[in-house]
Amino acid sequence: MTVIEVVSGDITRERVDAIVTAANESLLGGGGVDGAIHRAAGPRLAEAGGAIGPCPPGEAVATPAFDLDPPVRHVIHTVGPVWEGGNHGEAEVLASCYRRCLEIADQIGARSLAFPAIATGVYGFPPDQAARIAVSTLRSTPSEVERIRLVAFDEQTRDLLNAAL
């Protein structure tokens, strides 16, 4: 059974097999959590992303973790939906992000995984809805991942994730 926990902090400092980044379609790096992960992993992360991109919303791909500290061995890049009011399949695309990340984690043998709050930054997904989708999707998706850490960058996100959990 997968254990899901909510923590506050910097996702690049998590002691897990793989971390998820909320990427843009190019996989070349961006702002927010994606920018932080790219800075911590070094320039080879963007090179690797560019070689396998683009990645459509709702999908996920993995690269090595490059300069991230062990035990992190992989970065899983997923592209969340841009919020357009909620009537354009955004919830389904966001749920797909979490499902696909778990599938990729299983493929690469990751048993521990850290997620940020996908699509809640510049993509504008309402954080309360995103927290509920994240938790319900992670709970309902079969996986070999043993430990999932939902990493909140701020107190509001942490509280919303805890409430959904």
Point out poorly predicted stretches.
none
Q: Order of helices and strands, N to C? A: EEHHEEHEHEH
Share of residues in strands:
15-25%
Number of helices: 5
In this structure, how is the largest beta sheet organized?
6 strands, mixed
Distance between the termini: 15 Å
CATH architecture: 3-Layer(aba) Sandwich
Tell the overall outline: globular
Helical proportion? Answer: 25-40%
- Strand arrangement within the widest β-sheet reads 1-6-5-2-4-3
Per CATH, the class reads Alpha Beta
Which structural traits does this protein have?
5 helices, alpha/beta, hydrolase, Leucine Aminopeptidase, subunit E, domain 1, 165 residues
Question: How would you describe this protein?
Answer:
It comes from Plantactinospora sonchi. It is a single chain. With 165 residues, this protein is α/β, with parallel strands linked by helices. It has one domain: Leucine Aminopeptidase, subunit E, domain 1 (3-Layer(aba) Sandwich), CATH 3.40.220.10. It is 38% helix and 20% strand. It contains five helices and six strands. Strands 1-6-5-2-4-3 form a six-stranded mixed beta sheet, with helices on both faces. The longest helix has 19 residues. The radius of gyration is 14 Å and the shape is globular.
